[in-house]
Amino acid sequence: MNRVLINCLNAVNNLLAIVLVAAGALLGYTSGQINGGGLIMVAVGALGGLLAACLVCGLLAVLIEIERHVRQLKGPTL
Questions:
Q1: Given 5, 15, 29, 46, which residue has the most CB atoms within 10 angstroms?
Q2: Is residue 64 within 8 Å of 13, Cβ to Cβ?
Q3: Whole-angstrom Cα distance, residue 34 to residue 17?
Q4: Please, is 26 exposed, middle or buried when counting C-beta atoms within 10 Å of its C-beta (0-12, 13-18, 19+)?
């Protein structure tokens, strides 16, 4: 059951990274519409979303990878 939950967390982590980058770009687009710098603010927002995705999803990915390595060190279970 733990492996299923960890695999689900991995899938959610991948989707969360995409959502964070897209949300950053959307926020950049909306703020760019207010002051007239639409395309530049989309790029800045996407970079901010990418940074947030690296921090949040990167930490989750490292923890998932550590769990997989520990499972390999433990060996097969019957």
A1: 46
A2: yes
A3: 26
A4: middle
In the block, tokens 């995705």 appear at 53
Distant-in-sequence, close-in-space partners of 27: CB < 8 Å, separation ≥ 6: 45, 48, 49
Where does the pLDDT of residue 77 fall: very low under 50, low under 70, confident under 90, or very high at 90 and above?
Answer: low
Structure tokens at 55: 């921090």
Closest CA to 28 of 38, 20, 16: 38
Q: Is residue 20 within 8 Å of residue 57, measured between CB atoms?
A: yes
In a 3-state reduction of DSSP, which class is residue 32? helix
Q: Which amino acid, one-letter code, is at 11?
A: A
Tokens of residue 39, six digits: 């395309």
What separation in angstroms does the CA of 44 have from each of 13, 16, 22, 28, 31? 23, 19, 12, 6, 11
